[in-house]
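Me: Here is a favour to ask of a fellow structure person. Could you put it straight underneath, so I can go through it closely?

Assistant:
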Amino acid sequence: MTNPNLNDRLYYSISEVAKITGIKPYVLRFWEKEFPTLKPKKNRAGNRTYQPKDVELVSQIKMMLYQQGYTIPGARAKMKNGKNSDNSDVSPAQLKSLVAEIKQDLQEILGLLDT
């Protein structure tokens, strides 16, 4: 999810990050409270200034929450364990689907045994 144009500038405003990531500014401010690693600096006027690494972090959080099905506490724990860039883990949504398939297979086997 790397944006090749992110390294063109050193800092981005919250409205620019919102436009780049598709996340509303109020959600970005909320995520700052929920994810300790997301800490954009503030300029003298008190405005948030996101560095490219912060924008990448927002993109990772968005992917975990919206595409992989993590809850906020689950995404926070995954990031705390340093696994936020590791795509080899099975997401909760994929795990739920896998469990449903296994359950269906077991019910079919049980049906064969009853006959």
